[in-house]
Amino acid sequence: MTDTLRLPVEKVYEAELKALAKADDGQKPPGWALSPQSVVTYLLGGKAGKTEISAKYVGSRRLIETAVATLATDRALLLLGVPGTAKSWVSEHMSAAICGDSTRIIQCTAGTDETQVRYGWNYAQLLAKGPSRDALVPTPLYKAMEEGSLCRLEELTRMGSDVQDTLITVLSEKMMPIPELNDAVYATRGFNVIATANDRDKGVNDLSAALKRRFNVVVLPLPDDIDSEILIVTKRVNEMAQSLDLPVPKNAAEEINRVITMFRELRSGETLDGKTALKSPSGSLSTAEAIAVMVGGLSHSAFFSDGSFNAENLAPTVVGAVVKDPVQDKAVLAEYLETVLKKRRDYADYYAELSGMV
Ligand SMILES: Nc1ncnc2c1ncn2[C@@H]1O[C@H](COP(=O)(O)OP(=O)(O)O)[C@@H](O)[C@H]1O
Ligand SMILES: [Mg+2]
């Protein structure tokens, strides 16, 4: 175990990536470390020779194939979806598998300006020697173009439309002009962009039609059945427990099942049996939030209780996930407690804990 809190995934899954490269006899697009088939196997799990490849993403094969196929063309990839649908996760793993480097990343915010997307200047050098390549400070996008690797743009729609549009030349002409030097960077083969954006955010800056045309959009959905959602959460809880050096509680399976049942019912606006209609809270209540609730419970159960998950230590984080709007969501939760949980004998502990908090 290293002291680094979180290594890039190409380091964590180095052995799997090596095994895939070794067993790979498919055709590789220029600049790719693996064939598209092997990239899909890396993401969805399978075998490479004798090595077991773990599943990173649980969901539709078609979606992942479309995403990977897009990156082998001259179009960029935009992963769209509500928060917590594994957009960043898929983007990171795809970059790791395709070019062996997931760290070329730009986090787009309302404050992101052109110099963070194109290039900036080292002013000391600029004043001393005038504009030159040495004085130019490359961005991750610039470096990805030079190296022929992937650049990740996180939350693309959070940055201003004018800044977004600086990407148009890069994506359509595969070059970035540097007017100050009367020069340009030309992208090396293998360069492409994976952007993520979420469609639930307030203050999004919609992509211009010109930019949208350069992207293929793949929408990542919330898991459609409860079993795959339980699988995802269980997998991540086990991985987090390992990386935090905490034991996995004995009753993890049962508690994950109960928390996800509540999340899915609230999210979909009806009970799992479809008999009772409910109101949904304002937040997205995604799988990622269920993971956060369970991981929060991990350390609580290890340090402050008998090593098992229980309603008492999970309830506060459940409330935190559900109640995003203090007035409206509290009413939604209170109604759910009274109309649904109160009648379920196996949820008596959650009913008691949650009722005390709303
Ligand atoms: N379908 C899925 N398969 C695997 N992991 C998932 C899935 N959906 C959500 N997750 C988990 O959710 C967590 C958060 O995802 P993230 O990529 O940060 O969401 P987003 O960028 O869409 O807001 C990740 O740790 C990931 O493991
Ligand atoms: Mg994200």
Overview of this structure, please?
This protein has 358 residues and is an alpha/beta fold. The protein has 2 domains: 64-219, P-loop containing nucleotide triphosphate hydrolases (Rossmann fold, 3-Layer(aba) Sandwich); 226-355. The chain has helices at 9-12, 14-23, 36-44, 61-71, 87-99, 114-117, 123-129, 140-147, 161-164, 167-173, 209-212, 226-244, 252-268, 287-304, 311-322, 328-339, 348-355; strands spanning 46-48, 51-53, 76-81, 105-107, 119-121, 136-138, 150-154, 175-178, 183-186, 192-198, 215-219. A hairpin with a 2-residue loop joins strand 1 (46-48) and strand 2 (51-53). The protein starts with 8 loop residues before the first helix and ends with a helix. The mean pLDDT is 94. The site of adenosine-5'-diphosphate (ADP) has 18 residues, from helix 5, helix 12 and helix 14.
> What is the CA-atom radius of gyration, in angstroms?
23 Å
Bound molecules: adenosine-5'-diphosphate, magnesium ion
> Percent of residues in helical segments?
40-55%
Regions with pLDDT < 50 over 5+ consecutive residues? none
What value does the average pLDDT take?
A: 94
**Helix count, DSSP H or I runs of 4 or more residues:** 17
Q: Give the name of the CATH architecture of the largest domain.
A: 3-Layer(aba) Sandwich
Describe the largest sheet.
Answer: 5 strands, parallel
Number of structural domains: 2
From the helix content, strand content and strand pairing, which structural class follows? alpha/beta
What is the name of the CATH topology of the largest domain?
Rossmann fold
Number of strands: 11
* Lateral strand order in the biggest sheet: 4-7-10-3-11
Shape: globular
